[in-house]
Description:
alpha/beta; 12 helices; disordered C terminus; eight-stranded parallel barrel; 8 strands
Amino acid sequence: xxFAAASSPVAKLxxxxxTEPKQGHAFGGGPVPAGAREDAVxxxxxxxxxxxxxxxxxxxxxxQERLLGQAWPFPSPFSVSARAVxxxxxxxxxxxxxxxxxxRMGLPRGDVLLVSGAGDLAGxxxxxxxxxxxxxxxRGLFRRVGFLATLEDGPTLLARRFQPDVxxxxxxxxxxxxxxxxxxxxxAALGIAVHVSSVFAQGLLFAxxxxxxxxxxxxxxxxxxxxxxxxxxxxDPMQAALAFCLGLPPVAAVIASVASAAELRAVLAAAHAxxxxxxxxxxxxxxxxxxxxGSRYAISNxx
Length: 303
């Protein structure tokens, strides 16, 4: 497995700002009190700007977009990716909600608009959905369009069919299949900007065996073994997770979820740490497809 030469991690690092942390968040903890959320988001974004991070990934859920719109530093240095609502809400709703996302964030235009799941493109209205996305790009509301997918969605075939600018896919040290099966390289060879999410494996790298989701309960021993190997190499899980993804040459952006300025500082410290000397292949789960089992957990929570 080949990795890129050392460079500033900020060049690839993107942030998904978690305004209401949920169980399974990489850093744990509960939600920020309502009265302090705006201040917390403002401090987080200022910390990101000071560090040189320019990419922010958003989703149309809760108050996230509104809070971001109220908290951007001025002038804002950020390029923002937005996520469309599911096609099940209707084509008109997808288009209207994408416009509304920009309004809520106080932005005249966005960098990327992503179809929320590859399944929406694979269905009967997939082409019509993509035409709506392209129309928003042609009108200058978004600079690029793309989609979210898991390995099981066949992202390379979809990319050849729709020719997106961006594809976002989960990839981490527990599930290295997008690397080992050549999917990341194939997408990059098509001229697509590859964004990877679920860098911390939906918090599994930090979870105790007792708190694992039911569909992963049988992998507790394997996860413990991975953490033990990291400890023996004197590498903490966050450092290893970031080093693995940031070092992948086909990847244009590595999306890390953070809920506070303190968490972002921890991510930055881990990203800037010396690259650990690890046998990456030994850290992966033997059955990594389990990470995307159940009700499409990885897509609904990927960031």
